[in-house]
Specification:
The radius of gyration is 17 Å and the shape is globular. It contains four helices and ten strands. By secondary structure, the chain is an alpha+beta fold.
Length: 227
């Protein structure tokens, strides 16, 4: 297990080397900041991502801990929400290595309110992999949308830190953005297919503002505005 100390103003960051589901975040913050009052991502969070990327480790050990910490920061340290990893779906159509990091934010009644699926950075560069990433997050919605207790189930598909925002409507079961079918099943996808759809960096100011918009919507809908 690695333990990273980020300085007196930040958290200790611990991550198991071999099993991402054993990742631990120790909330030993001496000067805590609330996501609701932040104007940008805390420097300590950006440092965690930077350290994760710099380590010569498997993909899941580079991104599981940082994304776990990001969601924990966004949804607060109380007991109204919690972040939990999910196992790959049992489906013979897919290779389980396609599902590396999948986190769900649950409310206190164990109902899903936010989805995050993370794949390696290189998935953004290939049309076929972008196509699969889109299918995979939609499959997650197919399994979890009916369990969401609020009007919208927000989700992110992240290829490294490049993200695409999804939203599932729990009334009509529509997921946006609309799915784009494979143009010709017998042909290889053109390199331009879904290009630019993962064009927002979650760690940018734009990513911060979008995440704050999403979290605020969830807090309002769940009656946890002051979390």
């Amino acid at each position: 297990m690695f333990v990273h100390y980020l300085g007196p103003d930040y958290d200790f960051y611990c991550c198991h080397l071999f099993n991402p589901f054993c990742c631990i975040i120790l909330t030993l913050v001496l000067d805590p900041m609330s996501f609701q009052t932040d104007k940008a991502w805390p420097a300590g969070l950006l440092t965690i991502f930077e350290h994760g990327r710099a380590r010569h480790a498997t993909f899941e050990n580079r991104y599981y801990g940082p994304y776990n910490k990001l969601l924990s920061h966004c949804f607060g340290s109380g007991f109204n929400f919690y972040v939990a990893p999910q196992s790959p779906p049992r489906d013979d159509r897919r290779d389980t290595v396609d599902f590396i990091v999948f986190l769900v934010v649950f409310d206190s009644q164990d109902k899903p309110v936010f989805l995050l699926e993370v794949k390696d950075d290189g998935w953004a560069q290939k049309a076929e992999l972008r196509y699969r990433a889109d299918i995979h997050i939609r499959d997650r919605y197919a399994l979890m949308l009916d369990e969401c207790p609020i009007p919208r189930l927000w989700g992110l598909s992240a290829l490294g830190t490049s993200v695409r925002v999804y939203c599932g409507d729990t009334t009509n079961y529509q997921v946006t953005p609309a799915a784009i079918s494979r143009p010709q099943p017998s042909y290889v996808l053109l390199p331009s297919f879904l290009a630019g759809e993962w064009d927002m960096d979650i760690l940018s100011q734009e990513g911060f503002e979008k995440m704050k918009e999403i979290v605020n919507d969830i807090l309002v809908q769940t009656g946890n505005v002051n979390v």
